[in-house]
Design brief:
The protein is an alpha+beta fold and 90 residues long. The protein has a single domain, classed as Alpha-Beta Plaits (2-Layer Sandwich), CATH 3.30.70.2340. It contains 3 helices and 6 strands. It is globular and about 40 Å long. This is DUF3579 domain-containing protein. Pfam families: DUF3579 (PF12112).
Length: 90
């Protein structure tokens, strides 16, 4: 039995197994939802992170974002749907 962590993982692979391009898509997506911080530094959203899983770039979304910021959650999940990306819920 697996434990649920409340995370959604958007993988950089389409549902039909092709690698998603551009290769830096995860960085672009997480930067798009970031905010400017002190001295011009980027402050990434605390509920959205980049990672690599099995050699594939991914974006991890904390499930609590759905309640805290439904529009942002919808933006991220719609991105995955629109681009036919593989999504895993843990």
């Amino acid at each position: 039995m697996s434990e649920q962590t409340g995370k959604i993982i958007i993988k950089g692979v389409t549902r039909d197994g092709r690698k998603f391009r551009p290769s830096d898509w995860a960085q672009r997506l997480t930067t798009a939802v970031a905010r400017p911080g002190p001295k011009g530094r980027v402050r990434f959203h605390p509920k959205v992170a980049m990672t690599t899983k099995d050699g594939v770039n991914c974006v991890v979304i904390d499930r609590s974002l759905e309640e805290e910021d439904p529009m942002l959650f919808e933006f991220l999940t719609n991105f995955a749907d629109f681009n036919n990306l593989d999504v895993e819920e843990t």
